[in-house]
Amino acid sequence: MKKLYNIYSKKKLKLRMLKNSENRITVSFYKYFNIINPLEFRNKIYIIFYKLRIFGRIYISTEGINAQISVFSKLYNFFKKKLYTINENLNNIRLNKSLNKNKSFWFLQVKVRKKIISDGLLENNINFQNTGIYVKPKEVNSMLNDKNTIFVDMRNDYEYVIGHFKNAIHIPGSKFRDQLKILVSFLENYRNKNIVMYCTGGIRCEKATALLKHYSFKNVYHIEGGILNYVYQAKKNNFLIYFEGKIFVFDYRMTENISHHVLSHCKICGTFCDNYINCKNDYCHDLFIQCRFCYNKYQGYCSETCQKL
Q: Catalytic site residue 199?
């Protein structure tokens, strides 16, 4: 089957998105289920989303779907009903809405991959259906105060540094697959604890909790819907939010505010700051934290060296 794709340049599509004043909602969702023909499923998704003028990034594989998309607010309910009918496994799938209405994507990208999230795992006998127990958002706060419970952050280093639950244990690594390599040994001394894992939307914890259970960890949990669902439910049901700082998002917005706490520092001067930028040097494009003073001084570059090149 022929692959369908965008015919316009990304630059043109970005300008079109920025000029459009219609409200959009950023939505993320995922589902692990067996897809026999990923390319056929991919094209089906592409045609439906393209007609609805949905932008975003969707990964399809034999193990399921992982999507971060931008939908017109006026079409959201129609999109949701349509999504539920594409495949029985998507019926009533949990949709995580963003916490702000800022624009996030400007073109549609639907890719077939080996896995919907790269894990680097070589074992073929891990049962990824045998995951940890879901913790409802309203139960999170009480578990945070339980001395027999630890919270484990499964996001990358650059995500954790700008925001996390206080006293959470972070599994170090710049990529999810690097974290999984050390996960079991890193948590070995906590086998007798209740282990509550969390990430932005929940997809990484599905695999991380399954890996722990594969290695005989008993009391393994993860926050249902991740940080996004926790914050959404807290605001909806008026309970305290204990997550501090910002969350990193993999789109045009880069971050979303959760609380007033600023936990990280400018890479150049060390002042408290949590604003991410990409170095303007085409040979660098380093993702780093930079305060407004240093941004003006270095004009969006990460160093004097990159500024002079």
A: yes
Residue that the structure tokens 């960890």 belong to: 217
State the average pLDDT over residues 18-29: 85
Tally Cβ neighbours within 10 Å of residue 128.
Answer: 17
Active-site pick, 199, 205, 302, 306: 199
Q: What is the pLDDT of residues 277-297, one digit of tens each?
A: 999 999 999 999 999 999 999
pLDDT in tens, 90-149: 999 999 998 877 888 989 999 999 999 999 887 778 888 899 999 999 999 999 999 999
Residue 119: CB atoms within 10 Å:
20
pLDDT of residue 217: 97
DSSP H stretches of helix in 87-189: 137-144, 157-160, 176-186
CATH placement of domain 133-237: 3.40.250.10
Topology of 10-112 in CATH?
Answer: Alpha-Beta Plaits (3.30.70)
- How far is CA 223 from its chain centroid? 14
Map out the domains of the chain as residue ranges: 10-112, 133-237, 264-308
